[in-house]
Amino acid sequence: MTIAENTQTKAEQPPELSMTDVQDIDLNSSEFYINRELSHLQFNIRVLEQALDEAHPLLDRLFFLCIFSKNLDEFFEVRVADLVHQLTFNRELSGIDGLHPAQVLDEIYSLCSTTVERQYEILNDTLLPQLKEQNIHFLRRAEWNDEQRIWIRDYFDDNIQPLISPIGLDPSHPFPRLVNKSLNFIVALDGKDAFGRQTGLAIIPAPRSLPRTLRLPDELVQEGGDHFVFLSSIIHEYADELFPGMTVKGCYQFRVTRNADLDIDHEETSDLASALEDELHSRNFGEEMRLEVADNCPDELISFLLRQFNLDESDLFKVNGPVNLGRLIEVIDQINRPDLRYPPFTPGLPKNVNFKKSIFESIRAKDTLLLHPFESFTPVVDLLREAAKDPSVKSIKQTLYRTGAKSEIVNALVDAARNGKEVTVVIELRARFDEEENLYLANRLQEAGAVVVYGVVGYKTHAKMMLIVRKEGNQYRRYVHLGTGNYHAGNARAYTDYSFMTCDDSICEDVHKVFQQLTGMGEVMRVKKLFHAPFTLHKRLIQLIDREREHADAGKPALIRMKANGLTEPKVIRALYRASQSGVKVELIIRGMCSLRPGIPGVSENIEVRSIIGRFLEHTRVYYFLNGGNDEIYAGSADLMERNLLRRVETAFPVETNKIKERMKEELEIYVKDNTQAWILQTDGSYVRAQPGPDDEIISAQSWLLDKLAASSGTPSAN
Fold it and tell me: What residues have CB less than 8 Å from 240, skipping those under 6 apart?
């Protein structure tokens, strides 16, 4: 029994369509497309559903709940903010789905309201009781015993009260400008202060430097286990201490989410770094997008807050618990319960990389492919470290998008520059929410003597490339690393990504040309093997899809498999629809947003779309084409979205070594067969979780890859 048959009611077979019928279908019709923002929201909901999946360890389920909260924050900060901006300035843009931004916002508010309510139900009714069964407690104020209360009071006196600045509201103290996503309290007061003021309201901003949860010392807990108290509970308990001589009638937590997207006019900017630094200061005080308030807050206080933030009832979310569940993620590493986490594993190492010899020698022997996190990221770091020290290495060029403040990659680049290598680094300063960190890295590299450029104005540099030039004998040899993910060692333990290392002359020459275009000026350079956005990648992908359709029309077997994080680009979707109409089997593994609508008779009944949500964040981008038996496979940095294919610098590289190609095909196949962590996209835009039949083998792609590639995977994961 197939996965599709397991996850949805088997529909009646669509009527046979003649070629004329198929040609008459307008593939531009909005009914054939799913709104990208609503699809993005569906991905976040799939993440939330992991919190209920008992195949995940308990603390990892709490992790998924926290990640959902963080994802939703960013969704409002960026996606909702963009829709509101369109309406505010009369710049409404309907997408290929035909929905007006106002309609999309209505759908978002309705779906978010239901989902956030569900999120707190999962926390309060499922996770917290199950954590309590494991002797992990989040104590309410009524549950504090006398000894704990003394310790908490001392903590308030020593750590909270010296930092807190309550703000009484009156004509000389207007409502404060509160920082994006900060924890605050609105307080109802009775009585007069020392100056005779009687306004009745005050705001308490919680100190941002303090943790949102505190673990009580073991000596205060006779029964053992882990006991936590919320910072919000402590401030609630001692709010009256902040207003001496007055009576606190009520204290209620709230949080406002703001527009956090940066607005830089590239045409008016002569110095991108300086403009970005100026803009970063205003990120915390953008336009208000959402208000979260404790559900016991009186209506008159809620109305007051909505007026202050110029928000409507639709922007309001009443919550039964902490207003920022994302901060709960802090407690997971404080709980020493390995039995409630996924077992640790040791990433594998490729057999052809001999750490006792030079990595350059290994790459010369054969191309190397790594799949992180199942295989180690260390060879990539060690390649750069060796290059930094090797006197034969003369030049290193590198792109950086998201790297990390304590990056081993950056350390190696700094060492290389100090050792006299010609080091050129293309840093994308506009990597969203990593801008400040990237500015710091840029300054550090420049101080070491590296040449730092910020890519091309108007086109984010998203390609993952490293080019090393080494003198060997009387000639120079180039070595290249290309990847689907960022040069971030931490992400390489949590995201699935391919790394490819080669000294193939044509690929190295192509990478050299791409770097020339990034750092210099001139006409578009012809590259031989790479697909290069914004110039050739979009066109070549459509050509390969159309070629598969031509094979099907000629009666040859045809198959397309694509794996990416998003699929929204209209021309690519229409090409896939045309391929489906010709009978091409199209299997898409799209983790996040997907505007393609599968299962439409005469349009997309040969297309299946699945999303894999598991222990690791799926991040590989792979494009496979059967090509009449002479199959081709590419991997790269680009998702199948307008921004990636048309407005970014991206690369996709061919996999030509037969052994590596067969390996990647097998790994794609296991994702298509996954029947435990796969969610199948339905024609109406909803997702249904795949379920194995009673006689089916249980298949988890991530577990299979762990067992196959990791040096040691511990207890087999159940995801």
Answer: 246, 247, 248
The pLDDT, as a whole number, for residue 91 is 80
Task: Choose the catalytic residue: 227, 462, 488, 538.
Answer: 462
Kindly state whether residues 514 and 543 are assigned to the same domain: no
454 is in an annotated binding site: no
Please tell me the distance from the alpha carbon of residue 637 to that of residue 610, in angstroms, as a whole number. 20
For residues 467 and 395, what is the distance between their CA atoms, to the nearest angstrom?
8
Q: Rounded to the nearest 5°, which phi and psi values hold at 253?
A: -80, 150
Q: What are the residues facing 456 on neighbouring strands?
A: 459
Q: What is the pLDDT of residues 635-648, one digit of tens each?
A: 999 999 999 999 99
pLDDT at residue 435 above 60?
yes
pLDDT (tens digit per residue) in 279-306: 555 656 789 999 999 999 999 999 999 9
597 labelled ligand-binding? no
- Strand positions, DSSP E, 537-631: 559-564, 585-590, 607-612, 617-618, 622-625
pLDDT score recorded for residue 294: 96
- DSSP-assigned letters across all residues of 207-242: PTTS-SEEEPPGGG-TT-SEEEEEHHHHHHHTGGGG
How many independent structural domains does the chain possess? Answer: 3
Residue 682 confidence (pLDDT) = 96
Same domain, 462 and 571: no
Same domain? For 373 and 290 the reply is: no
Tell me the Ramachandran region of residue 11: left when phi exceeds 0, alpha when psi lies from -120 to 50, beta otherwise. Answer: beta
124 labelled binding-site residue: no
Q: 């919320």: which residue's tokens? A: 230
pLDDT of residue 246: 84
Pairwise CA distance, residues 568 & 644, whole Å = 10
Q: Is residue 301 part of a domain?
A: yes
Predicted local distance difference test score (pLDDT) of residue 270: 45
Q: Which of the listed residues 523, 551, 581 is the one where a domain comes to its end?
A: 523
What distance in Å separates the CA atoms of residue 263 and residue 525, rounded to the nearest whole number?
Answer: 31
173 and 216 within one domain = yes
Q: Within this chain, do residues 54 and 168 fall inside the same structural domain, yes or no?
A: yes
Type of residue at 322? P
Instruction: Say yes or no to pLDDT of 12 above 50.
Output: no
551 in the same domain as 585: yes
Is position 341 annotated in a ligand binding site? Answer: no
Residue at which a domain ends, from 340, 371, 404:
340
Q: Is 266 annotated as catalytic? A: no
Q: At 98, which CATH number?
A: 3.30.1840.10
Q: How crowded is residue 432: how many other Cβ atoms within 10 Å of its Cβ? A: 14
What CATH number corresponds to the domain at position 611? 3.30.870.10
DSSP 605-654: TTEEEEEE-SSSEE---EEEE-GGGS-EEEEES--BSHHHHHSEEEEEEE
**129 shares its domain with 249:** yes
- Retrieve residue 653's tokens: 């590289």
337 in a known ligand binding site: no
Between CA 594 and CA 698 the distance in angstroms is 26
Residues 101-153: tens digit of each pLDDT: 999 999 999 999 999 999 999 999 999 999 999 999 999 999 999 999 999 99
Higher pLDDT, 263 or 416: 416
Measured from the Cβ of residue 171, the count of other Cβ atoms closer than 10 Å reads 7
**Domain encompassing residue 689:** 532-713
Q: Do residues 681 and 594 make contact, with C-beta atoms less than 8 angstroms apart?
A: yes
SS3 label, residue 468: strand
In degrees and rounded to multiples of 5, residue 455 shows phi and psi of 80, -150
Which helix or strand (DSSP H or E) is residue 202 part of? strand 201-205
Residue 527: count other Cβ atoms within 10 Å of its Cβ: 20
Same domain for 365 and 312? no
For residue 619, say whether it is annotated as part of any ligand binding site: yes
**What does the pLDDT read at residue 455?**
76
